[in-house]
């Protein structure tokens, strides 16, 4: 069976499967959601077939339907599948040297960590502790609500507004931890806008009391936030170093972006 699949000449002709892949590739190449009619026209497929394919992909969670605009876009599940593969050895190997430098050169004791977006959560993929580093919850494999963490906010800030709203459709989506974190969607939007303008995100006691973090996102070739690099430290130790630590995560995230894409940043 492996030899048959490996041989292009023996690959079975299944139009529906190929059309599904074509739709996914087309949606991935666009910056935002697109109408089904545009998909049908640009792919040269019957409109009825495109609607049927989209209905299945929406039902399976790979595509999000935006009824208010009559458009369709990729869901976070597609990124999650791709990110899961990257997250393992390759992503950690690319990021770990950058994280070691961050932890070593930081002006205060820090923990450097690498996180990936998994739906509305972040999952920690790697961690490096500096000298006298504080004890944090960001162990490898731990998942936390993305909107509460600096790395999560950094990645959410690089998504489009419809993508963010798909993850957080209502106020009830904003899980809170010890009464910390944004209370409304408008507050979340303001928080992400601030991170977008500044280039890095922060949180102060939203995950663990007395601890704070900064983080910046690394992007793939489609400018999707593949991962984020963050630093966590005691709030009472940071003093005047906020901007310095934030800028350091931005530099590390840009370097990781270059390694992921093969392009100099």
TrEMBL record:
Transmembrane segment boundaries: none
Gene Ontology MF term list:
DNA binding; DNA-binding transcription factor activity
Look up the record and give one Gene Ontology term from the biological process aspect.
negative regulation of DNA-templated transcription
Q: Does the keyword Protein biosynthesis apply?
A: no
Q: Which PROSITE patterns match?
A: HTH_ICLR (PS51077), ICLR_ED (PS51078)
For whether the record's keyword set contains Transcription, the answer is yes
Q: Which Pfam families match?
A: HTH_IclR (PF09339), IclR_C (PF01614)
Keywords for this entry? DNA-binding, Transcription, Transcription regulation
Residue span(s) of domain HTH iclR-type: 14-76
Chain ranges of the IclR-ED domain: 77-262
PANTHER family assigned: HELIX-TURN-HELIX TRANSCRIPTIONAL REGULATOR, ICLR FAMILY, HTH-TYPE TRANSCRIPTIONAL REGULATOR RV1719
Question: What is the designated name of this protein?
Answer: IclR family transcriptional regulator
What is the species of this protein?
Answer: Salinibacterium amurskyense
């Amino acid at each position: 069976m492996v030899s048959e699949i490996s041989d292009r000449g023996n690959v079975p002709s299944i139009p529906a499967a190929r059309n599904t892949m074509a739709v996914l590739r087309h949606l991935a190449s666009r910056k935002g959601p697109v109408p089904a009619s545009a998909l049908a026209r640009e792919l040269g497929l019957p409109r009825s077939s495109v609607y049927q394919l989209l209905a299945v992909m929406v039902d399976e969670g790979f595509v999000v339907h935006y009824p208010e605009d009559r458009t369709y876009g990729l869901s976070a599940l597609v990124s999650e599948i791709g990110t899961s593969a990257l997250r393992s050895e390759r992503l950690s190997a690319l990021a770990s040297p950058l994280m070691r430098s961050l932890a070593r050169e930081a002006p205060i004791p820090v923990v450097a960590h690498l996180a990936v977006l998994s739906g509305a959560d972040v999952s920690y993929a790697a961690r490096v502790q500096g000298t006298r580093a504080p004890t944090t919850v960001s162990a490898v494999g731990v998942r936390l609500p993305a909107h509460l963490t600096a790395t999560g906010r950094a990645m959410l800030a690089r998504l489009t507004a419809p993508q963010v709203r798909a993850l957080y459709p209502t106020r009830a989506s904003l899980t809170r931890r010890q009464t910390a974190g944004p209370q409304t969607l408008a507050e979340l939007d303001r928080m992400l806008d601030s991170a977008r303008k500044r280039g890095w995100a922060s949180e102060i006691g939203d995950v663990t009391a007395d601890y704070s973090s900064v983080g910046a996102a690394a992007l793939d070739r489609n400018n999707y936030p593949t991962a984020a690099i963050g630093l966590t430290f005691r709030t009472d130790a940071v003093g005047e170093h906020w901007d310095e630590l934030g800028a350091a995560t931005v530099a590390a995230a840009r370097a990781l972006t270059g390694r992921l894409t093969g392009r100099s940043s």
